[in-house]
Amino acid sequence: MSDLLALAAVDPRGVYATASALRDTGRPEERVLALRALGLAGKELGRLSEGVAHLREALRVAESAALPYAAAQVRMNLVGLLATSGDLDGALAAADAATPVLTGADADRLLANRAYVLARSGRVREVARIARTCTDPEVVVGLRINTGLAKTYAGRLGRGEADLRAALAVAERAGLRHQAAMVRHNLAFVAMRRGDLPRALTLYEEIEPELAGADERVHQLRIDRAEALIAARLPGEARTLLTDTVERLTAGGYRCDTADALLLLAHAELADGDPRAAAATARRAQEEFAGRTGLPAELVGLRARWADGDRSAGLLTAAEQAAERLARYGWASAADDARTLAGLVALAHGDHAHAERLLDRVGGGTVSARVAGLHATALLRLARGDRAGAAAAVRAGLRTVDEHAAALGAAELRGRAAGWAVELAELGLRLAAGPRALLVAAERARAIAGRPPAVRPPRDRRLGGLLAELRRVTAEVPDRPELLAAQARLEDTVRARCRRLSSSRDAVPGWGWLIPALTETLGERMFVEFIRVGAELVAVTLANGRCRRRSLGPYDPVRDDVRLLRFAVSRLARDPDGAPARSSLAATAKRLQTRLLDPLRVADRSVVLSPVGALHGLPWPALPSLADRPMTVVPSAAGWLRAMRTPPSRGHATLIAGPDLAHAEDEIAAVRAQHPRARVLTGPAATAETVERALDGAAVAHVAAHGVFRSGNALFSGLRLADGLLFTYDLEHLERSPRLLVLSACDAGRAEIYEGEAVIGMVTAALGFGTATVVAAVTPVGDAAARDLMTGFHERLAGGASPAGALARAPRSLSTLGFVCFGAGHGHA
Questions:
Q1: Range with lowest mean pLDDT among 491-495, 687-691, 703-707, 729-733
Q2: Cβ contact 225:241 at 8 Å
Q3: Per DSSP, what are the bridge partners of residue 776?
Q4: Alpha-carbon dihedral 339, 343, 344, 345, rounded to 10 degrees
Q5: N or C: which end of the chain has fewer CB atoms below 10 A?
Q6: What totals of helices (H) and strands (E) does the chain contain, helices first?
Q7: How are beta strands 536-543 and 546-554 bridged, if at all?
Q8: What gap in Å lies between CA 328 and CA 330, rounded to an integer?
Q9: How many CB atoms lie within 10 A of CB 535?
Q10: Model pTM?
Q11: pLDDT tens digits, residue range 464-521?
């Protein structure tokens, strides 16, 4: 019978069924044991109120039968369930009543349960001071988990991890599989707090199946996974996960876990740009929390007030008081957040000395906390007239984000990570004195997401299998809409798999090399980087060693004109003779020419353009002065230099035609005249697997196919082949990317722009993995006209022209204005 108690966390459904059959039979001692097992199993199954009721019945049976030790054991179990339900005072009272009675292993278990209540009460320092020697392995694991988490919350991540690893060793030696899974869950939490998101996300994904059937544990894991999603700057995903989890926890009566979930939901809403929703959710969390544990929720409410424009003295006082109370109860990172907030409010009031006292006490913590502290420090120094000191703080903050992004193997996560640097990067641009400093400041920020890993991730066969299955399902969805749910699940699984990738890259030792290297490589060409400084758009040009800054006026009208131009070009792809579209194209292109290019004094030079924001989607050849000018588009100056250093390739040529495209095979036949030894894949032979093999190591690869752009996750964009889409994700499987990649497909050059100017799409994925030049369309294009343009392009390429020169000189109609050269562009293909 006593085995039921040990199995309640491992097999709660089985224990519940067995104990239900025994609860009304046997001696009082046996009934108490059965009711205790029902209580513990009910907690694991998400029926907390029912579990508490079973334990209270067990206590009545024990007391009626004059079984004081059994009654104390029931109270020992009640401690954990009452704490989870939010009744922390009742839990401590039960612990106090049981303490004089229990001995041996039971006393140790009670101590572990008391530590859990203290942690829930916010008394993390008291938990960390628990030093009693225990002999029961299960109790030792519980105590080590609680002390490890207490130290983690106090900011002592190394010591917290050491406690958890010790707990894991005990659990594994004792064969406590369920407890070992719980420890690994908490090790994932430590990894997340340290900023090792790939490790955290990997552990969460691996552990959840091990906790199947234990609903409470699964909910707790999902809460922590949501915190990792917030740290990865994916607050929308976190909100969805937490909203569902809150509903389930509320239904189960798990008040403390509900409070934790609400607290994180408020964080997610704040990170998602919804401070009013965050403030309301934070108030709900405070209502659910008991006593001192409501402090983190109070802090989220204060941050929401700041985000909503509050700069009052009352906010300053409240933030300072919150910081002191958080520090007193051991929440070091949260205390630093509160001090940073208070420092910002003091700075807004012009009280520099007060702000400095507050910010001097801010320590390390998470990436977001360190960046926020350095941003506040930079603002303080700037307010005091110390521009050099402010710039140093900005550089330190950007370096912090860059180091964080460097460990992320997934392009999506690196792109999201750049968002942590937005405010710092904007301040760095404001501080830049002169065009060279402005260019370097912009490049420093763009490098966070733009610098690829030092080593391509190893081939992941599991990911390859998932992409193949997604390809099959996606191809069937038009005829079988009931597969949409399966498609969504597969996409979630692919994203989760990719987010597990870790990476590394060399740190940038400094940026003094950039402009000399750029000047030398440019030759007679002009480099132009468009930059947003506040609401204004500026351009920094570099030509013949001279760097100039040009003010181009407000950004918003340019953004609006880019949208109009894209619309006109897209309409002309379908109807090249449409008079309204032609008229709109001419007028809009003229305005953009006047705003963007005329002030630059390009003369007759070839150009390298590095856009910003909406300009990444601009069909540049539509602008009059670029119609027949060799030009290439790059995410950054450093990215262009990297592409220009791509070594020549002696590889093969690959020509590929996708299905259901009227002129695709004609286009491939015409291009083949310039590449007679090319590997050609058309019709049923052009499957994703064969195409991947043909692309690998190619010197020149040309794909004529339907293109599909996925707004919201550009990495699921792709090219339609015989068996479905070749996704952007698939390009990561290539060991050697084609040196020149030509994508004769609608929208294949489109990209998604994250906060921080991270550019995510098929083109940037190819460039990041070693392709020197990509030719692709940022809009829809006409099929027949694309065939003619590509024929001319390859003829000129074979005649010795660079890719940028060949594209500029090939005959182009209005329905192919969307084709743009990306990457190196210049030099031989």
A1: 729-733
A2: yes
A3: 743, 820
A4: 100
A5: N
A6: 36, 16
A7: antiparallel
A8: 6
A9: 9
A10: 0.86
A11: 999 999 999 999 999 899 999 999 999 999 999 999 888 877 777 789 999 999 999 9
Terminal C-alpha separation, the chain: 76
Backbone angles phi, psi at 800, to 5 degrees: 105, 0
Residue 562 corresponds to which tokens in the numbers above?
Answer: 């880019």
Counting Cβ atoms within 10 Å, is residue 141 exposed (0-12), middle (13-18) or buried (19+)?
buried
Average pLDDT estimate for 782-800: 95
Residue 135, burial from CB neighbour count under 10 angstroms (0-12, 13-18, 19+): exposed
Closest residue by Cα to residue 34 from 10, 5, 77: 5
Rounded CA-CA distance 465/494 in Å is: 10
Length of the chain in terms of residues written: 829
Helix (H) or strand (E) holding 618: none
Q: 21 Cβ partners below 8 Å, 6+ apart?
A: none
Q: Which two tokens stand for residue 781?
A: 């294009």
In sequence order, the 6+-apart residues with CB closer than 8 A to the CB of 32 are 58, 61, 62, 65, 67, 70, 73, 74
> What secondary structure letter does DSSP report for 597?
I
Nearest Cα to Cα of residue 281 among 339, 226, 324:
226
Neighbour-count burial of 264, counting CB atoms closer than 10 A to its CB (0-12 exposed, 13-18 middle, 19+ buried)? buried
Strands 700-704, 679-681: pairing kind: unpaired
Q: Cα-flanking dihedrals φ and ψ of residue 744, to 5°?
A: -85, 80
Give residue 71's pLDDT band: very low, low, confident or very high (50, 70, 90). very high
Is residue 418 within 8 A of residue 449, CB to CB? The reply is: yes
Answer for the pair 672, 646: CB distance below 8 angstroms, yes or no.
Answer: no
